[in-house]
Structure formats: C-alpha cells, structure tokens
Amino acid sequence: MTAPIPFIPDRFKTNAAHYLAGRPAYSPQLIRRVAQACGLSGSHRLLDLGCGPGQLSLAFSSWVGAGLALDPEAEMLRVAAGLGAGIAPNIEYREGSSYDLSPALGRFRLAVIGRAFHWMDRADTLARLDALIEPEGAVALFSTAIVTDAPIAWLAPYHALLEEYAQSDPARLQRKADDWESHDAVLAKSAFAALERVSIVETRRVSVESLSARPLSMSSLTRERLGGRLDELLARIAELLDAHATDGWLDERIESTALIARRAGARS
Ligand SMILES: C[S@@+](CC[C@H](N)C(=O)[O-])C[C@H]1O[C@@H](n2cnc3c(N)ncnc32)[C@H](O)[C@@H]1O
C-alpha cells in the first residue's frame, strides 16, 4: 500500500476562484448514467466528498432527496454554496474531510468523489465509507482526461508546459511515481471491490480563457509555489494558445469517467 499524500486542508485555497473556469466539466450524460446505474430515485442521500466548487453535488441534486457536500477548504465551499444557491436547496455544504467521516453523518446511497480520491488516505476513506454506505449503495470516483486519439497541434506543447512547471511539486512526484498504487488496486482490496467503469467522450469547444485558467486551478502551479515563474508560465501559455486559436476558441476531446465501486454481491 503506498503512503497517502500528506493532508494539507487548505492546499486548494488559491485555486478555488479559478477551478470552475479552468477544469473540464463532467459530461451531463455521465451523471445520468451513474444516477441510473446506482438506482437513484429522488429520495436517497448523496455524499460529495472533496466537493471542491460543488459541480457533482449540483449535478446530482435532482436525482437525490438530500446531499451533503464536504470539503476541508472554506474557499471551495464558498464557491460551491454560490453555485448551488437557489437551484440545489437539498444540498448542505459543510467543512470536513475524509478524516471526519463517521456514522454520525448518517447513511448514504452513493458517495461521489471527483478528482479528489488521491488526496485522501484511500484505504482509510473506503473503510470509513463502508460504515456509511447502504448495502446496495456505491462509491463513484469521477475524473476527466484529455483524449489524444487525434493530433491536436497545441495539446502536446500545452501539457509539456504545465508539466515543466508542476514537476517539482512533492505531491505530484509521489502520485506519478512507479510505486503509486492505482485507484483500481486500492478499491480491489476494499469492501467496494466490484468495479464498473462508465465513460463518455466528447469533442468540446474550449476558450483560451479557460485553458489559461486551468494552471491556476492546479495545486501544483500556485503562486506560493512558483513565485514569478507563474507569470512566465502564463505568458508562454498565452503565446502558444493565441497561435492556434480562432477568435479565442480551440477544440479539445474530453473523456469523463466514473469508476463505480460496489460491494461484491450488491445489485447493479
Ligand atoms: C481537485 S479538487 C476536486 C473538486 C471537485 N470534486 C471536482 O470533481 O472537480 C480536490 C478537492 O479535494 C479536497 N480535499 C483534499 N484533501 C481532502 C480530504 N482528505 N478529504 C476531502 N476532501 C479533500 C480539496 O480541498 C479540493 O477541494
């Protein structure tokens, strides 16, 4: 078992303001597939663990009776509460982390974790969730990835730039190391060992503005970490994207994936 990445509750403080603009959205089609696969009928409870700016809890809000969105970073919760205000009255936003999961939170049909499982002590989190998830319930890990099946001229140099400036981050080094266990392997050793992967691939228009906000949404590329090198990175990104964009827009192919993990024997 690989050691967990050290827990820093405010790791995403300065990223919060840029997160929704910078990160690819999850496909609405994927949300529907997961909701149906997990038998959500409008009455169950949902846990959004590491909710960040709350995209997942908002997307699931019409599929559940109530949701609890937990995150250790107050700025993320502020953005999340703003996103849900008036349209997701059944979602409660609360400060907390995987280390606060306890039966006092009640029972849930589904726990969703988007782009955040790697920040947790994964085995400990799954053991805690085992006490909270209903017998027929599930844990679903959400992620997005950029698909590189077709040549996109700006993509490789864009990623090379992000990698060049992010590579010294100790948390990133730990996660990219050869001995870092995959989420699948960690789940396979947990109570939630029955896995189903669902993914949707879409070509999307993306603005230069959004691709410029993407580095600012990443904890490995903060000003605190890079100082003046952040401005250098942003200038290099602007130069690269402007050379390829048409009226400030580019295309990218995004794969939105959910890894649904159930207990062996639970009905899908
Ligand atoms: C990359 S953001 C993901 C936000 C959102 N869930 C999404 O799908 O885009 C990771 C979030 O995990 C939170 N986080 C970090 N460590 C955590 C932990 N141990 N338990 C719960 N959340 C944690 C961070 O504060 C951050 O908001």
UniProtKB/TrEMBL annotation:
The keyword Zinc does not apply. Keywords: Methyltransferase, Transferase. GO terms for biological process: methylation. GO terms for molecular function: methyltransferase activity. Gene3D superfamilies: Vaccinia Virus protein VP39. Signal peptide: none annotated. SUPFAM superfamilies: S-adenosyl-L-methionine-dependent methyltransferases. InterPro entries: Diverse_substrate_MTase, Methyltransf_25, SAM-dependent_MTases_sf. Residues 47-137 form the Methyltransferase domain. PANTHER family: METHYLTRANSF_11 DOMAIN-CONTAINING PROTEIN, METHYLTRANSFERASE TYPE 11 DOMAIN-CONTAINING PROTEIN. This is Class I SAM-dependent methyltransferase. It comes from Paraburkholderia ginsengisoli.
